Every structure is written in structure tokens, then in C-alpha cells.
Amino acid sequence: MNAQVMIFDLDGTILDTLEDLFLSVNCALKKNRLPERSLDEVRQFVGNGIRKLIERAVPSGSSEELIQQVHQDFTEYYAVHCADHTRPYDGIPETVQKIREQGIKTAVVSNKADYAVQTLCADYFPGMFDAVAGEREGIRRKPAPDAVFAVLELLNMTPAQAVYIGDSDVDIQTAANAGMPCISVEWGFRSREFLLAHGAQKLISRPEELLQ
């Protein structure tokens, strides 16, 4: 593996965003007089974008109108509170900086809404990524490779020059669909056993292992 660009997922890979997602989901549910969810439930719901997160969080059989209202309430709250408890995983900023010092480009591709991805990367990793992309209108979410290809085109790179780093089965599928290897991290929102069961081929337990 001789990557010239490393593309990172955001939630559960470089940032621990779970607490803010959990609080935002439950704020939206409570506002609509719906049952709240546990931290572990929200952990399992994330990974496929906000819309899917809300669909999973509301009671089964909820109307489209209710889903849209909860989605709107979540978005309004999360836009203000997306960084209240969020923090980089230990060792990530230093590792990304060392990767860049080796002449390797770095990027972020996430299913999180683009406004939040841009804000969080600017706040926690200023100047540390050559390209950052979240969920946007007209571009299919992961595991579709569209956003990955858009970032590679921006950086004048090909899939053969890239590696994707993530914490979920969605990331494994995204890398496969984009035609690049995937490194799965064990510190994120999915367990080692879950990742292996979903096709993980290379796992790491510490960010520093990326330097190897």
C-alpha cells in the first residue's frame, strides 16, 4: 500500500461526535413527543447520513411528515450544538500532520451534512485537509463512490493512488466501490468483530499505525 492520498471518514474515525449526535437526536424526538433513544442505539443508527439516522430513530411506521419534522428539528439544533462535546480522537491531529509531512495528501469524505463537516474540520483540523466533502444535493451518499471520486478529481489523483480510512461497514463498501483499499479503525462506532464480519481486511487500533 503506497498511498499518495489518504481519505478519512469523519464520525467515529477522526472525531468522536457521538455525544452531540445523541443529544441532538433526543432533542428532536422530545420536541415531537416521541420516545428518546439510548446512546448505544444512536451509535448503531449513524453512518448513512442524517436522513437515515432520523428514519432509524423515530418509531417504526412514522409518517413522512413526522420524519421530515424531526429531521428539521435535528438539523436546527445540531447546526448550533454540533461541537459542544465533540473532540478529535487521541493521536489523530498529530498523525494527520505527520502524514502530510511525508508529502501525502489528506482529505475527508463523510455522509454527515456538508455544513457540519466543513465547520468541524475547520474548527478541529485547520489547514490539515486538502479537500473536505460532506453530504450534498446531487451527490449520492456513501457507500456510493461519488463523493470520493469528486475529491480525487479535485486533487488530481486516481483510486489507485488512494486509501480510505473509516470505522464502519459503509466505509468498507465505499472503498470497494471506489476501487481502493480500506483501513478500518477499531476506536470508532463499530466493534472489531462487526468490522471483520463485514469484510474488513486491514484493521488498526491506534492512529499511529497509519504511519507504518
Features:
single chain; Rossmann fold; globular; 2 domains; 212 residues; two-stranded antiparallel ribbon; DNA polymerase, domain 1; alpha/beta
What does this entry look like structurally?
With 212 residues, the chain is of the alpha/beta class. The protein has two domains: 5-16 and 87-211, Rossmann fold; 18-81, DNA polymerase, domain 1 (Orthogonal Bundle). Helix content is 44%, strand content 16%. The strands form two sheets. It has a six-stranded parallel sheet, sandwiched between helices. α8 (169-178) links the parallel β6 (162-166) and β7 (182-185). α1 packs across α4 (64-81) and α3 (50-57) crosses α4. The radius of gyration is 17 Å and the shape is globular.
Low-confidence stretches at least 5 residues in length (pLDDT < 50)? none
CATH class of the largest domain, please? Answer: Alpha Beta
Q: What is the overall silhouette?
A: globular
Query: Per CATH, what is the topology of the largest domain?
Result: Rossmann fold
Kindly give the count of domains: 2
Q: Tell me the total number of β-strands.
A: 8
Query: Do you know the CATH architecture of the largest domain?
Result: 3-Layer(aba) Sandwich
- How far is the first residue's CA from the last residue's CA? 10 Å
Overall mean pLDDT stands at: 95
β-strand percent reads 15-25%
Number of helical runs? 9
Class per helix and strand makeup: alpha/beta
Radius of gyration: 17 Å
